[in-house]
Amino acid sequence: QGQPDQKALQACSDAAEHVLELSKERITQEFMKILAVYNIVNLLPLVKKSNILAPLFHQFYDAEIMGRLEALQQQHDALNNVARIAVLAGFSESYPDDVERFLLLSNKQKSFFNALLQSYNEINEASEKEAKFLIYKMGVDISVQAMLLYGASHNAEIPVDLIAFMKSWKVPKFPIDGNDIKNEGVDDGPLIGEVLSYIESW
User: Fold this and answer.
1) What are phi and psi of 193, to 5 degrees?
2) Vertex 62, ends 60 and 63: CA angle to 5°?
């Protein structure tokens, strides 16, 4: 709230090079706190200007996309740090490895990050059809964040009722199982799984 203390900012800038001397665990802990703040779109420019944690800002980071993502996450009550990291990463799939010297993401966070970018890249429009396809493949949490990322990066409106639908939609049970395939004359073995996967993807 209010204007930042210029002396404090200068002190942070002067000590910026020493921040990266801290342990990865401590840097990650503090950085996650920064990502979770309410008004991140105003805070990150100060962090970047002060050269604090400079290696964590990808060259293709777009502050306007971050601002729109923050607004969408607040609008739909869907705060997620990993989605914000995806924007900070400039949507680069290699980001977790590129910053591993400084940022210690868990395997769960890395898996979410990779699945999130994969889902984001598959979206063509903010529609119920796309939402169902994503949720069937990736689950609700990843799909919701991917849709919000799509809205932020394309400056597209994401209807409130679409996100509400995504949060409540129940994935239908696939009506065919291995026994059905066997009954059609396919022998036990890997081929059953391959046939099921083919039918499901169709």
Assistant:
1) -65, -40
2) 145
Residue with tokens 């291995």: 178
116-136 pLDDT, tens digit per residue, is 999 999 999 999 999 999 998
For residue 84, give Cα distances in angstroms to 35, 102, 132. Answer: 7, 17, 23
Query: CA triplet 113, 108, 53: central angle to 5 degrees?
Result: 60
Q: Which DSSP symbol is given to 126? A: S
- 114 three-class SS: helix
pLDDT at 114 > cutoff 90: yes
The pair of structure tokens assigned to 187 is 């022998």
Say which residues have a Cβ less than 8 Å from residue 167's Cβ, sequence separation at least 6: 140, 144
What are the C-alpha distances in Å from 94 to residues 89, 91, 116, 128, 194?
9, 9, 13, 30, 30
Residues near 92 by Cβ (< 8 Å), separated by ≥ 6?
A: 58, 60, 98
Question: What 8-state DSSP symbol labels residue 125?
Answer: S
Q: Is the dihedral of CA 187, 188, 194, 197 positive or negative?
A: positive
Q: What is the pLDDT of residues 122-179, one digit of tens each?
A: 999 999 999 999 998 899 999 999 999 999 999 999 999 999 999 999 987 655 665 6
Considering the entire predicted model, what is its pTM? 0.79
